[in-house]
């Protein structure tokens, strides 16, 4: 779905607003993105791919421990959801909360793309990596999954103790009254407001889908958005965006999950955002083993007991076959 490209250079500040207010939207439009940071790896990963022996070593480190898993976009790439930060990711600019709230044109553009993207993301299914973590939980090895993804694939795979750190794409919240509705309920309204739009966009060809159900489409000026049925307020995906904080209660639950475990397994995340990195720091501070499975370098590499340059499906299946 993405073409290989160099590691993205992440802008040092939130991208400027790009209101799609003119009829001919430029072909390169900043794609809305969820929580982002200014961190980018300053060096390439020169480690060879992990061997069977490396994977066995990871299993030995985790054996006998109660393991909390921390996952990111890399675990969902095998489900067809592109990783916007991985080695193959195309450069992206994050959408900011301020853009979304401050610009009706930006919101219209965002919801039009989300309308298309949601239908695609909603059809994705868990892969071997998600299933392995669910199996490890059922086996009593994994005590919980903290995910930075908003795709709900851990829950669909059967994981029970899931903390969706950044929210998930299947809920929508009113910014005025706080009312939460399902994305499916909003879909019915958007379909009624925009007859034929979905078909028109789908016919245009291969739609590129992002982890937060954003789709890269350009002609969105005639899209009609929906507002809160209770108060007329602005509706927003119930996702933590750049410029927003993870709700305190959720942060506390994530720390509690780390404190409750005695080892941490980070999988498919570059740990670029603090919301994930600080959990790894917490585990390392307390002397708990930390295993990182990721293609490419991560911001938490120096905290790791063992780092594996490996895909999550392969590595987690390997661990599930050897643990407990
Ligand atoms: Zn409302």
TrEMBL record:
Give the binding site residues for Zn(2+).
Answer: 174, 177, 228, 231
SUPFAM superfamilies (UniProt xref): DHS-like NAD/FAD-binding domain (SSF52467)
Mention one GO molecular function. Answer: NAD+ binding
Give the span(s) annotated as Disordered. 1-48
Q: Looking at the record's lineage, which domain of life comes first?
A: Bacteria
Which reaction is this enzyme known to catalyze?
A: N(6)-acetyl-L-lysyl-[protein] + NAD(+) + H2O = 2''-O-acetyl-ADP-D-ribose + nicotinamide + L-lysyl-[protein]
Q: Which UniProt keywords apply?
A: Cytoplasm, Metal-binding, NAD, Transferase, Zinc
* Main localization category: cytoplasm
Could you tell me the EC number(s) of this protein?
2.3.1.286
Q: How is the cofactor bound?
A: Binds 1 zinc ion per subunit.
Compositionally biased intervals (Pro residues)? 1-23
Binding sites annotated in the UniProt record for NAD(+): 72-92, 148-151, 268-270, 294-296, 312
The residues annotated as the active site are 166
Cellular component (GO) terms are: cytoplasm
- Record function comment: NAD-dependent protein deacetylase which modulates the activities of several enzymes which are inactive in their acetylated form.
Tell me its family: Belongs to the sirtuin family. Class II subfamily.
Q: What is this protein called?
A: NAD-dependent protein deacetylase
Name the source organism: Serinibacter arcticus
Question: What is the name of the gene encoding this protein?
Answer: cobB
């Amino acid at each position: 779905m993405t073409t290989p490209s160099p590691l993205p250079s992440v802008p040092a500040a939130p991208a400027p607003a790009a209101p799609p207010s003119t009829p001919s939207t430029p072909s390169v439009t900043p794609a809305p993105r969820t929580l982002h940071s200014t961190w980018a790896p300053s060096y390439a990963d020169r480690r060879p791919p992990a061997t069977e022996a490396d994977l066995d070593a990871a299993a030995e480190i985790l054996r006998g421990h109660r393991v909390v898993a921390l996952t990111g976009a890399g675990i969902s790439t095998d489900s067809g959801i592109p990783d916007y930060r991985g080695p193959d990711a195309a450069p992206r600019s994050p959408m900011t909360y301020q853009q979304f709230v401050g610009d009706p044109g930006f919101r219209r553009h965002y919801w039009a793309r989300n309308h298309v993207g949601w239908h695609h993301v909603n059809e994705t299914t868990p892969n071997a990596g998600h299933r392995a973590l669910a199996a490890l939980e059922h086996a009593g090895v994994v005590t919980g999954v903290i995910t930075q993804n908003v795709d709900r694939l851990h829950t669909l795979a059967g994981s029970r103790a899931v903390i969706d750190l950044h929210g998930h794409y299947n809920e929508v919240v009113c910014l005025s009254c706080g009312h939460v509705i399902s994305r499916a309920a909003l879909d019915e309204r958007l379909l009624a407001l925009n007859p034929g739009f979905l078909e028109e966009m789908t016919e245009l060809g291969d739609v590129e889908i992002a982890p937060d159900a954003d789709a890269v489409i350009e002609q969105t000026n005639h899209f009609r958005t929906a507002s809160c049925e209770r108060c007329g307020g602005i509706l927003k995906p119930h996702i933590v965006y750049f410029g927003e904080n993870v709700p305190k209660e959720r942060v506390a639950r994530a720390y509690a999950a780390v404190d409750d475990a005695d080892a941490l397994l980070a999988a498919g995340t570059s740990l670029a955002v603090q919301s994930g990195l600080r959990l790894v720091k917490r585990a390392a501070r307390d002397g708990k083993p930390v295993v990182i499975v990721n293609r490419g370098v991560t911001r938490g590499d120096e905290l790791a007991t063992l780092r594996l340059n490996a895909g999550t499906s392969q590595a987690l299946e390997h661990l599930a076959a050897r643990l407990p």
